[in-house]
Amino acid sequence: MKTIAKGLLIAAVAASSMMGATKISGAGASFPAPLYYDWAYQYQKETKNRVNYQSIGSGGGIKQISNRVVNFGASDKPLKTAKLEKKKLYQFPAVIGSIVVAFNVPGIADESLKLKNSIVADIFSGKITRWNDAAILADNKGLKLPDEKIIVCHRSDGSGTTYNFTYYLAESSENWKNNYGAGKAIDWATGIGGKGNEGVASLVKQTPFAIGYIENAYKEKNNLSAAILQTKSGKWVMAREENFKAAAKYASWTKKDNFYALLALQDGDTSYPVVAATFILLPIEKVETNKEVLKFIEYAFKNGDASAKKLGYIPLPEETKDLIRSYWADKGLVK
Fold this sequence. Notes:
The protein is an alpha/beta fold. The chain is built from 14 helices and eleven strands. Helices cover 41% and strands 18% of the residues. Mean pLDDT is 93; it is low at 1-19.
């Protein structure tokens, strides 16, 4: 991602000196940041228009767009209509991604460790503290799991990734639901914190016997291992593209509620359990800058699917993109 960001910066400097080029700024979720960097780089190469995106977490993105610091916000936690109306914002999804449970246990390979959803909750709540706990061993016969303390890695900033992950935990465990619930930031019982998906991925990579939750693109970029989880129906499912797609197809979007949807634990025997959309937030009154932002998003919708797939995301279906375009028209964002 550093290479992409460096290339984006170089191209941005060149473009800024060209007559007629526009500049827009966005900030928020780290979940889609690798993709937004790539989209912005390609967009600038073709149009000379600059898009500057800051990966600061969904909480920061919501705050900055609410205060009109940037032209668009990005959040993996969708806002309900009442809050959107209060903050005078529009909202729509941009892409779908998946959250994986990454681990660093020497000798344990990717796609070999099975963790029930309820056990994931018990690990992150501090109820299960060692890798050779009987509850873990029961589903992993043949794996030589060590008698070592589990080092939990979590987000230290307000995060839509955290919101979607804790929502999944709350739906998987009564203990989690009753004691922690779902939120962009929670009072973690155990572990160490990292800023952004970047920070958590780095912690897991550098810390033997660690476990953490990250967007799949960060797992792929850092060559990390991911646990096999369970579908809603209890089937074991790996962190693979076809399983992310299986869950994504159950997404149900409506313009009426500004596309509000949580996608964890969808139906289907191959649906990966922790799939989430990431959303763009626009200020209602910023008519002209909204048009420039939507030019960028429209470019991404038409030209960015290959980049999304390459980086481990799931592009929105064409019917969903058309529904979003209809939403833009209804709101007067486009003619």
